[in-house]
Structures are given as C-alpha cells and as structure tokens.
Amino acid sequence: MKVYLSGEIHTDWRERIVAGAEGLDVALTGPVTDHGASDDCGVAILGAESDKYWHDHKGAMVNAIRTRNGIEGADLVVVRFGEKYRQWNAAFDAGYAAALGKPIIVLSMPEHQHALKEVHAAALAVAEEPEQVVQILRYVQTGALPG
Amino acid sequence: MKVYLSGEIHTDWRERIVAGAEGLDVALTGPVTDHGASDDCGVAILGAESDKYWHDHKGAMVNAIRTRNGIEGADLVVVRFGEKYRQWNAAFDAGYAAALGKPIIVLSMPEHQHALKEVHAAALAVAEEPEQVVQILRYVQTGALPG
Amino acid sequence: MKVYLSGEIHTDWRERIVAGAEGLDVALTGPVTDHGASDDCGVAILGAESDKYWHDHKGAMVNAIRTRNGIEGADLVVVRFGEKYRQWNAAFDAGYAAALGKPIIVLSMPEHQHALKEVHAAALAVAEEPEQVVQILRYVQTGALPG
Amino acid sequence: MKVYLSGEIHTDWRERIVAGAEGLDVALTGPVTDHGASDDCGVAILGAESDKYWHDHKGAMVNAIRTRNGIEGADLVVVRFGEKYRQWNAAFDAGYAAALGKPIIVLSMPEHQHALKEVHAAALAVAEEPEQVVQILRYVQTGALPG
Amino acid sequence: MKVYLSGEIHTDWRERIVAGAEGLDVALTGPVTDHGASDDCGVAILGAESDKYWHDHKGAMVNAIRTRNGIEGADLVVVRFGEKYRQWNAAFDAGYAAALGKPIIVLSMPEHQHALKEVHAAALAVAEEPEQVVQILRYVQTGALPG
Amino acid sequence: MKVYLSGEIHTDWRERIVAGAEGLDVALTGPVTDHGASDDCGVAILGAESDKYWHDHKGAMVNAIRTRNGIEGADLVVVRFGEKYRQWNAAFDAGYAAALGKPIIVLSMPEHQHALKEVHAAALAVAEEPEQVVQILRYVQTGALPG
Amino acid sequence: MKVYLSGEIHTDWRERIVAGAEGLDVALTGPVTDHGASDDCGVAILGAESDKYWHDHKGAMVNAIRTRNGIEGADLVVVRFGEKYRQWNAAFDAGYAAALGKPIIVLSMPEHQHALKEVHAAALAVAEEPEQVVQILRYVQTGALPG
Amino acid sequence: MKVYLSGEIHTDWRERIVAGAEGLDVALTGPVTDHGASDDCGVAILGAESDKYWHDHKGAMVNAIRTRNGIEGADLVVVRFGEKYRQWNAAFDAGYAAALGKPIIVLSMPEHQHALKEVHAAALAVAEEPEQVVQILRYVQTGALPG
Known about the structure:
The structure is a homooctamer.
Chain A: E1 2-7, H1 13-20, E2 27-29, H2 35-46, H3 52-72, E3 76-80, H4 88-99, E4 104-107, H5 117-120, E5 125-127, H6 130-142
Parallel strand pairs in A: 1-2, 1-3, 3-4, 4-5
Helix pairs in contact in A: 1-6, 2-3
C-alpha cells in the first residue's frame, strides 16, 4: 500500500508514522522536507531569479514533479495541518487528492476544526495524532484494532 | 464560457467581475456567499447536531453538492485569497481544479506570495485585482487587450 | 441541474419532489416506475423466455439503457430506500453513482440506518423526507434556506 | 490476477475459494470480515461518538479505505449475497465495480433471483457455489474446464 | 437522446427506425450510407492513390472523423448486421462502443447467432427487426410498451 | 511489454510469435484457444441451458473475463484475421482496443484488404505474417531491424 | 460540430475555411491571431516583466486558457503548418489533441512532409489547401463529395 | 521512476543523463535513436512503398508503438530541442505528454526561447544542460541539491 504523507514539515509526525508502521506492508512517501532545499531547488538547479516571485515559482514547479507523482501514485493520502503557517499547500494537496478520488486521512488540531470543515468533508478519517494514522493503516491491512 | 468563482466571500470581488464582464459570453457561478447560510445549511435542512464537528460536517457536505458541480462544469476557475481567515477551502478548490486539469486564475495579495507558491504554480495567471480577471476573460473571448 | 431519482417506486416520493421543485431549474429523471412494465419490457419487446431468469435478465438489460444514461448524465443522484423489498437495485445505483463521483443524497428511514451505513458513507446528505431533498435543491441553486 | 471478494461475511465461502484456488496465480482480497471490528473500527481508533449514526459513519468511512482500494485494484470482483441481512453494502460494491468496468461474478441463491436481476444484469457470471467461482478462475487462467 | 445507427447500409433499416421514432425525442445519426462516396471520399478530396490499400485507407480515415464522433457522442449505439458482406466495420464499431461503456443494441439475424456471441454479450438488447429498436426507444423514453 | 494476441484460433500463428519472440522482454497473452472449451465454458461451469442463445451467451460472458482483462492490460494488441469464419469477435476486439487507445497490429490477408479497411485504419501496422509481428516487437524493444 | 483551427496565423487560411464552411453546421474557433496581442497579453494585463522569458511565459499561459479550452471542447482539430517560423506551438497542439483522442486534420506543404511524418501519423487527413478541409467538413456533415 | 527522454537524437544528451543518473532509481527510456532505422523501420518490416509519403508514414506508425507506450508509461517526460532540424516530433511529444498530465522538463537553447514559449508554458522545468536534468532527478528522488 502506497501512502503519501502531505503537509506540515516542522514536527516529527512523519517519523512517528514510519516508526509505527514498521512491519506493515506500506511504502511511505512525501515531499522534500528540508525547508531550505524545498524553497531554493528551482534556482539552485535552473539558475537564479532576481524576482522573488519567479524564484519561488521555479522551486514550486520542481517540487511539483515529486508531489504530483507522489499523490497520483498513492493508494492513500495523509494530509497534516500543523500549528503554524498558512499551509495552503496542504489544503491544495487535499483538493488534488480528492479530485483524483484518493482516500484521504486528515491529521489536524481541534482548534482548526471549523476552518478545515470543507477539507474534512473530503476525508475518510480525521485524526489528531500520527499514531491514529498508524492504527488505521494496521486495521486496513490486517483487520487488527488497537488495545 | 463557464467560470467558477471560488474563495473569499467578504468583499465585493465577485460583483466587480460580474459588472466588468457584462457583454461577454460568460456564465459566472460560485459557492453560496451568505456566510451564515453556508455554515448552517446542513443542520437547517437535515436536523440539528449537538456536536460542532458534525454540525459543520453536514453543512460542508451539502455545500459540496454545489461547489463540486461548479468546479467540474467550469471552463475556468478563479480562486480568490483575501486578507483574513485561513481560507483552506480556497486552496482545496484550487487543488481540486488543478487535478481536473481546469485552467486556474489565482487572485491574491502580494504579501501572500510565498505562502501561495504551490497554488500559484498550478495557475495560468496570478492577478491582484478583479478587473484583471475581467481583462483576461475579455482577451480570451475577443482578443482585445486593455487600453 | 439534472437530478436522477433512483430507488423505491411504490410511494409518491418522486411526485413530492417534482411538486416541491417547481420553479427551480432542475430536470428530474428516473427509472420507469410502472412495476409491471419494468418487469416485462424485455420479453414484451424482444420475445418471450421460458426461463424466469432470462425473462428477468432481458428486462433488467433494457431498463439499464435508461438507468445508466440517467445516472451518467446526472449532476446529482437521489437514492430512496423504502419500507419494503430488498431494494438491491437502489444500493447498486448508489454504488454506481459513487464510483462515477456523482454527488448523492440518500433518502432513507431511521430503522435502516445501520444496514445502510456503507451507502450513507458515500452520500453528501442523508434525509428522511422528500421535502428535505427539495430544500437541498433550493439551497444549492439559490442559497435560500427553509423557514 | 487480483480478485476482490465482496459481500457476506458469515459463512465460509471465502475460505472455500481460497482453498480451491490454491495453485492458481490469483491474489484474493476482501473487506475485514470480523463483524465487530468492522462495526467499531471508526470509534476505536478515532474516538467515541454518542450518536449511533456517527458511530457507524466513522466505521464505514475507515472500512471504505480498504474496500475502495480493493475494488479499484481488482481484475475481477466477486460479490456474494447470503441468506440473511439486507446486504446493501454488497449491492453497493457491485454497482461501484460495474461503474468502473470491472468484470463481476455474482454468487447468489435461487430465491433471490428476481430481487437481484439488476445486479445480475451487470455480471459476467452468476453462480450459486464458491466452487463455481474457483472453476471460472481456473478456466480463465488455464483454459481447463471441470471434469 | 442521441442514437448512433452503425452497420449495414444496403437495406432500409435506418429509414424504418427514423419513421418509427417520429414523435420521440431522439437524434438519430450514422455513417455516410452512400457506398460509393464512402469508398472514395479520401481520394476525391485529398488526391488519388495508385495503390488500392492507400485509396481505401484514406477513405476509411476520413469516414472515421464522422463515425468516431458519432459513437463518442451517442447515448445509445445500435449495430446492425445484415445478410451480406463481412461487416467487420460493424463489429469494430460494437467493440469501440463497448469499450466506451455505451449501451448497445444489436440488430441481427438468427443464423448469425453463434458467430455474433461475443458481440451479443456486450449488448443490452439483441433484436431482429428495426421496429423492436423503435419499441425500445419508446419504452426507454416514455415507459410505454407495445400493444 | 504485454502483448495480447486476439483473433483466429485455428492456425499456429500464436506459436510462431511465441517462438520468434524468445529472448525479447514480452509477455504474450490471448484468449482460450481450445474451441470446444471456449464454446462450452459457460454451461460446463454455471449449468446447462436448453436455448442455444443462452448457452452461447454464458460462454461468451465467461470468456469476456479473460479477454477484457487481456486487452485492458496490454501495451500492444495484435489482431489476426484468418481465412475462415466470420471472425466478428476479432473485429470487436480491435474496436475495443482502439477505443482504449491501445496500439494495434493487424495480421490479415491481402484478399481481405477492402473489407478490413476500417479496422486497418485504426492500426499502427498491418502485416501478413506472424514473423513480421516478431520483427516489430524486436524493433520496438531493441531498435534492431531484420536482415 | 466544433472545429478548432490551430497553427499558423499569417495567411488567410482561417478566413478561407470560414467562407467555405458557410451553410454547414460548424462552430469554428481558434487562438487569438493578432500576433502582437498574443505576445503581450500576459504583461499587458498582469504587469510588466524585465526578463524576456517571463514576459513570454505570462503571455503563453494566458493564451493557454483559450487554446486548451478550444482543443478540449473540439470535435475536430485542424492544425496548419505554414511556410515560416518554427511553429512548435502547432506541433504541440497536434500532440495535445492526439493524446485526447481528437480527430485531427493536418494542413501542410509538400516540402514539410518528411519533417512532419510523426504529426501526420496522428492525423485522420493530411491536406494542402484550406478548401480541402472545407470539403471534408461538408462530406462529414452531409455525405456530399466535391464536383 | 520512469523517465522518457524525447526529442533530438544527434548529440550525446541521453548518454550524459544516463551517466549522471547512475545510482538513482530511474528507468530511462526513449525512441529508437538510430536515424536510419527509425526512418526505414516501416518498409523494412512491412514492405516497400513507392511513394515517399507512405514510406515515412509506415515508419512513423511503427515508431509510435514505442513512443506512445514510452510517454504513457512515464512518470516524467524530458523533451530536448537541439540546434538543427524542425523537431516537430519533439513538440508533438510535449503536447502529447501535457494532455496526459505528465510532468515535463524541457531541455532547450536560449535562442529558441521565444519560439518555444507555448511548450515551456507546459513544462515544470526548463533547462539548458542535461546535467540539470540529472540534478532535478536527484533532487526529486533524494532531496539533495547540487554543490
């Protein structure tokens, strides 16, 4: 089962899923999570831009090679909304996955509930902790519930 | 040409596009823009919920009947990001439209440039004023440029 | 807006939706609701069958010309589960609509809630009365809520 | 050949197919067949619900992660209708598979023939015994007929 | 309802359907039925070919502009197999329509039953007379059965 | 490269392709080529039919499980028209493959050129001998031409 | 019938098709053919760019709103290769149309035959004069051949 | 990651990508790059043609078996425009890949910037040197930037 882990890149939620999913038959992928590399990949490879817009644009396009392949090839997309930043890319990925008919798990915080209601409405599960995602993966693969 | 106007519902940007597009062959649609109705439509029609999550969920699902049809039937999707709120639904719509291969115009503010770079990367045009969207509609339909 | 009304054919729920939706821009379609004609259309047109299985099969195939076109052309599919019979064709239509990504409203009775949970999970709204479907159609088209 | 075994979970029909298909190049999958786990998976992982509707809803959504992937990835879908219960999920799966163009084998009882005629009309084979499904798998893979 | 009438061009079956369907809301289309024009259209417009293969090829390609649009735009495809010739184009059209998921009615003669079994297996109805096709069109549109 | 070999089952053309393709990275599949088994598979597994039409129908449906999977999974479809019989199933397969956008090679005899012109027009190559198919497979995989 | 006229914008070939097609039921569309407007539309509406690459990029993106809608909505795409310039956009449009399965007519000059062979291989007709395109449109709509 | 290398066949750009990508998990494919074989494959295998147009046509069709499979199976398409020739096949491939939604990297020279603007507008990256393509592949796979 191919699972794409989209969204927030500042906490260890991906690592917690990777660790928890050990022993399951899942292939976990996601975006480049090195913030600096992700921001600068376009100009670092394809040449500098004086205008910040095009600097960012080039990077976003190069990252899209990875993220679109990741989402399109996934059997399940997990989208994490964290505490900080606007995280429009996470919501964009959720919309992208929804239009492709991919099963979606949203990982979000209670205080974002109202703001995320349209995104939640496209999800098959809404969780708060990475360990719940692991439990879903285990249940979906083996039928085993926690506890 | 069917144009879906997604996103921010607190300023008059839709009205400015409607007014400017007079005389063009465009059918402009969008979500329900009455904030209260949009929030409460689920429970008002289908019955109250004690839990806020399900209250919101029911509403978001009913609204999705309109928004998904709107985006899927559109020849062009305009997504507006305004000053306030988290606007994850706007980014979600952009992702949804992108995955369907719809041409997208993003209407956003300079201060959001970096945060929107992944959304911008999926757009065919990024504008700041509704009048620019009108100019694009006019150009695309008639070949006439402003001025 | 094209709305396909699938399912139960023994009560007046379609008539109530048709009456309530007067004035809205909706085109309401559905299966042939004359039970006898629906059962016998195959053999009446294409020749008798001695075996009941093929008698039914021929009829179901001819009806499928209408129902598949109806569902595939719809912007919204309403599926009604009534009191009696097994109604597997209603559930089949719901699954068919779901796989095509059609917005679905399920019209069902509280006592069927558990048995319909997989079908409900594919719906954007679950209602008990045809008038609620009308209210959704009105809201989705005009933004107006009841009351 | 990937075969998804949908429907009834109270008899040993899946085991009989698994046993019979030994030696064939088939990968057999299906839903979680532990009735209790299947009913409670949503709340067990994502938190309790006071309302039975949402309790069931959460579970149905989590199960959908497995069942939709199973059907969408299958080369052949077998749908079994048993003696008891309403089995709307089985008919839903059949409709879902039909809309995706998947070859379908229905495994059903003679007394359900009339009620299942629309589902049968979407199938490439209608059998009564699991061993017939095995014979079809063997024939389709090797060309060998029984006896 | 758009109906594409494919196949045999030497008898009056299309005229009988056109006449019978008067008053129904159907748009009937089909290939060019002037045998000579159909054979020579390629070279008549695009220049002569010394080689019979390319003469025929050019014509078949030009005709494909019409036939593919006709089949792809149809809500129902009727394929007629007549008494004479090999009629591989009729079977090709049936396969083309089947892969697109179009409802198919085959109009054929009893003596071709065995040879057409794979084509029949892809049809929702197999008729012998054009009037039966009209009866199906009438039933599918109005629910009325003959007699 | 997955190659589906459709059509005529009375000569050794498949064996000649299999032999010639030795050493190439191709997986060759096709229908069941035992004529008797192919005709009787439906009734042998699912029960006898007194009516020849339904006898044939059941068999054609069971064979369709194999043939549709074969064509849909193929990277290339070879369709062979032989000397005898009407071979409508071969033309049907060609139409089916064409609508799916599969590359098609037609293997046919000069005397059928005119009758096959619509089928040829959908092919990327028209050959007369199985060895030419092998040469195409070799060229497409390795770039090597014969001689 | 919707026909998109892609390619060369310096001669009167579109006008000749428009004039010739008078009386036929065709809707002819195409790109903006004012070379200056086409080059500058991006910066004229969305703001100047100091870098020529982004100047051109913005224009190409705005034009894509029109051209992609035009090709995707077309029943037939005509691609004209003229005498001058590199015309990569014409070949790009041809590839785009081919991947969507659109019928294509290429309008080209004999001296470009070898260089266009891959593009020609995706076309249903290759013509040299706009009047031939008109003759094809007339034949496809009415069955009438020239002369 | 499957990468299709389309376009120019006269310089060593493919070899430079192959060499640079050593150690990455990429499968690099492309067209037959032996110019003579590519031109003559059709007639060499399927028989000579007296008319140059059909000579070329047969070859282009046989090559299309390889190129279409290559593009359709790719996760990423690189299209190289070199110094010489009209290279319409490269632009055609870019359009084909774009319509399929494939991520595209264009490898081109500064002097072609204006002429390629529509093709560039469909790309996620525009590079000048094969080594930049390698750097993108490495970044997309490993997150590592050059230097």
